Here is the input.
Amino acid sequence: MAPINVLMVGTGEYTTGFVGGGMSGSDKKVGVVGLTLFDLRRRGKVGKLSMVGTSGTKFPAIRTCLPFLSASPIPHLTLHFQGDHLRKNISNVYNNLDISFTSFPSDSTDRDPDAYLSAIDALSPGDAITIFTPDTTHYPIALYAIRRGIHVLITKPATKLLSHHQHLLAESRVHKVFVFVEHHKRFDPAYSDAKSKAKELGDFNYFYSYMSQPKFQLETFKAWAGKDSDISYYLNSHHVDICESMVPGYRPVKVTANGSRGTAEALGCVQETEDTISLLVKWEKKSEPEKVATGVYTASWTAPQKAGVHSNQYFHYLAANGEIRIDQAKRGYDVAADAAGQIMWYNPFYMKYAPDEEGNFNGQTGYGYISFEKFIDSVTALNEGRVSLDQLDQRSLPTIKNTIGTTAILEAGRRSLDENRTVEILEDEGVWELK
Here is the structure.
């Protein structure tokens, strides 16, 4: 069977590293999605690639400013550009990696929010899309693709609403397509090892997590920060999912949220944009409801500009017979350079951008890369009839079915903030609701 074709929906930081007319100032300067898929194509795992955004006029700047991206100014036509900039940055970095793709809409189109429709229509059943767009757009884009037999990878959170999440699950079963939520922290070697060890520590008792990004990220996200989504959906989603995957014998039953405000507003975000959000979650053991546990998940996008890390991220897990602590910000690898004026802690375990000894991209062991490869391998196996959707769910992958609890917690947290109350989570034979 020929490799699947993949459409990248969204042309921003995570896909291309392109933000505000130039390279991102974050740790994703050349993106993640595009580079990963270009390399998976080099390895023969994917076929034709395409990309769609809301503004076609961005594509010339993306091609000019970024070393890894090129496309045709004519929709549906793929070209290979050989300009000095691209030749210099690709040839000298990743051994002439093929970075061609078809772009939607045309370069002359200033804005077309529905361009994803024609881009998805250009695919065939069994192909796939990746969705890295504002949270409110995940559901309609994914639903359109699913109903056309297209497999879907969605960035976290899968959806903002629990009802939308469950609808996507139902539709994916009707149309027999795989929907995967890009919870890459599940593939972090420390986190995945901790998940395994947690099984040996007895009943779940307490989980605390913290994740942050520096204030300059609000410039990247100002179009939607505080309007369409919040920092809890964006960052707490990582550790809520990790906790849910570590304690499959427990279910969340109650959420109370609290938020801090002031800094984001002063930086130009809309009124009432939270700087930091904490979720207090009550967990209940499914087989023994009298046994309960507590989870506290905190996320902030107003961390210091020069903290030495792009993202602080750590958690503490306490169980009946032991505990686990992980700090994935400072990993024993720091670099001090005069140009930076400070010590920097880097994370090559997420995306390793240094080439190998032959000049090829060498980041296949990064958990950011592994997440996409798991999706592509699963889709290929499903298309070839070697695995079923139920079997993929049983593998503890972050499938649309295995991540319902995370969406329930995140929406309950948002409701708790908006309505100033505790929100209950009910689940009966796989059907979830908030009260």
Summary: The two ends are 47 Å apart (CA to CA). The longest strand covers residues 250-261.
